[in-house]
Design brief:
eight-stranded mixed sheet; 13 strands; alpha/beta; three-stranded mixed sheet; 10 helices; single chain
């Protein structure tokens, strides 16, 4: 059997690359097709280094040739990536902080702060040094979730300058506007005041050496988000959503904000919170109260990684209220859930740092405790 090159090119015209309107042949992505009897070699040029797009393109080529040309074809795909130069992600580096991860949501009430707190303690359990900046100025939750409501940061001298010392709980360093206001006091600030307070917590604090700083952003896509992006070289963003359509519509806007040309922060992936409910007395049952796999499907539509799903479990809420994040419950289902999600976040951070330009020397230098990453 001899394969026909023209027939193969015609088949490949039925495929488009994710994110591009034209088909592979018309767009110039297929740079060459060579046939040797029943063997075919396809040279493919991509303009994005994202692993999932490369894998999908390769799978689409193989599947299309096997279905439309010959089921016996032996196919090899050579992929070359020529990524266009992207502008540097804005912000000046904080000495000693290697990776800054923004945790965001399109709307409130989806459990973003709960996810941030549990990611932080999971990273710390894996051996990483972790800090959390509670940037949710108008509804700071971290002091409650880490049981440090009554704590106040002290001032210390570092290299002749006065710096705030973050509060430490469960091996996580924390700063929040909640430490500087009374629990019953409303923060009635305009945007510039809120931004100035955040800048002080970022640059006038002694964070020390951190592998990860997690930023718990307020809901939406507003002034605080822009201030953070302008102040810091954010390594990547994690978007939290619940499965229902109303939340997904806003999560889509959250992803779009980070991907916009003006901000240009890589989206590491989407986490689906409150994915399903399992009663304690019926551990095999799953009730999809808010809809099924909505955030997973959104991640596929937007072509960003899906980092995992968190079920509705009473102990997660109780643990947050009592100030002991649920991921610390050794041997529990929740510990396993958050460990898997955290490993996925670390892996996507590694992928991002390997395939995209660094932002002010941002890279992971230790993979302690993370079996998801090849050592």
């Amino acid at each position: 059997m001899k394969l026909d090159r023209k027939e193969i090119l015609k088949a490949l015209e039925t495929i488009t690359i994710a994110g591009e309107g034209k088909n592979m042949v018309e767009s110039g992505a297929i740079t060459n097709v060579i046939t040797f009897g029943d063997e075919v070699v396809v040279d493919l040029l991509l303009h994005t280094p994202a692993m999932h797009i490369k894998k999908r393109a390769e799978d689409d080529i193989k599947k299309t040739i096997l279905e439309l040309v010959s089921p016996e074809a032996k196919i090899k795909v050579n992929i070359k990536v020529e990524a266009p130069e992207k502008p540097e992600i804005k912000g000046k580096a904080i000495p000693g902080i290697k990776n800054i991860i923004a945790v965001a949501s399109g709307k409130g009430g989806v459990g973003k702060s709960t996810v941030t707190a549990n990611l932080a303690v999971s990273l710390a359990k894996m051996g990483f040094s972790v800090g959390v900046l509670d940037a949710d100025i108008y509804g700071p939750s971290m002091p409650i979730m880490f049981d440090v409501e009554s704590e106040k940061p002290i001032s210390i001298m570092v290299d002749g300058k006065s710096k705030m010392k973050p509060i430490e709980s469960y091996e996580v360093k924390i700063l929040s506007i909640g430490f500087f206001t009374s629990p019953s006091q409303a923060v009635i600030w305009r945007g510039p005041m809120a931004s100035k307070a955040l800048n002080q917590m970022i640059f006038d604090a002694d964070w020390g050496e951190l592998d990860f700083m997690l930023i718990d952003l307020p809901p939406g896509t507003g002034d605080i988000h822009l201030s953070i992006m302008q102040s810091l070289p954010v390594t990547g963003a994690v978007v939290v959503s619940t499965p229902q359509a109303v939340a997904l519509a806003d999560a889509k806007k959250g992803v779009a904000m980070f991907m916009s040309e003006a901000i240009n922060v890589p989206v590491l992936g989407i986490i689906e919170n409150m994915a399903y409910f399992t009663p304690e007395e019926l551990p095999e049952n799953k009730y999809y109260i808010f809809g099924k796999e909505g955030a997973r499907n959104l991640s596929e539509d937007l072509e960003v990684p899906f980092l995992g799903e968190v079920p509705i479990v009473q102990s997660i809420r109780e643990a947050g209220d009592y100030g002991r994040p649920a991921a610390m419950q050794t041997g529990s289902v929740i510990e396993t859930v958050f460990e898997e999600i955290t490993r996925n976040v670390v892996q996507e951070t590694v992928n991002r740092n390997e395939s995209l330009p660094a932002t002010e020397a941002i890279k992971i230098t230790t993979m302690a405790g993370c079996s998801a990453v090849k050592k």
